[in-house]
Amino acid sequence: MLNVLLVERGARADDAIPVASWPFCLVYLHTQRCACGGNWHALTHSLHGRLECHRAICEGCKTERDFWFDLSLVVDDPNGFARFEELRGLFTEGLDYIESGEAFRAIPLLSEVAAREPWFGLAWLHLGIAQMLGEQHLEARPSLEQAVGLLPMDSTAHDGLGDCYLALGLNHRAAREFEMAVRLRERVEDS
Question: How far apart are CA 72 and CA 62, in angstroms?
């Protein structure tokens, strides 16, 4: 049995996820996992003033839920899509630097992406990974804790935070994160 406190943000209009670019709504939806471990797939979307609601279905258990987004930052901004493309370019360049062994070059790029789209869990995760590769363990801790908070069903985020805690000598916390990662992987394999 997986014991995890799962907070499903954005499930109601009064808890809408703020976004700084139009396409980020789908990016956010596709980076989340259902409690069963399955991926979410968008079915429909509707506008409600400055809010947008995406109805989604879990590809694993077929549960449906709403994802609400606050578009206040982009409703009147004709450059919202261009901003998304810029962030996507920065994110991709940061990932390329990590892959090529130049984590120090990835850190400022991923920091900017995370600052401009603070709900982008993968930006926080990869920022934390780059910081860990650069042996910036103290800096990596809040990045990876943010990633786990935004991606609670992502085993990679828990593994990364476990590695960080281990590097900081927090062995009990590290063991808890590694155990959670194993349980999440088992849950995904079972779904």
Answer: 31
CA 182 to chain CA mean position, Å: 19
Q: Where would I find the H helices in the chain? A: 24-31, 80-99, 103-116, 121-133, 137-150, 155-167, 171-190
Strands 17-18 and 64-70: parallel
In contact, 94 and 103? CB cutoff 8 Å: no
Q: What is the mean pLDDT of the chain?
A: 88
CATH code that applies to domain 80-190: 1.25.40.10
Residue 60, number of CB atoms within 10 A of its CB? 18
CA-nearest of 119, 131, 189 to 155 is 189
pLDDT given at position 126: 98
Q: Show me where the domains of the chain are located.
A: 13-70, 80-190
- pLDDT digit string (tens) for 165-183? 999 999 999 999 999 999 8
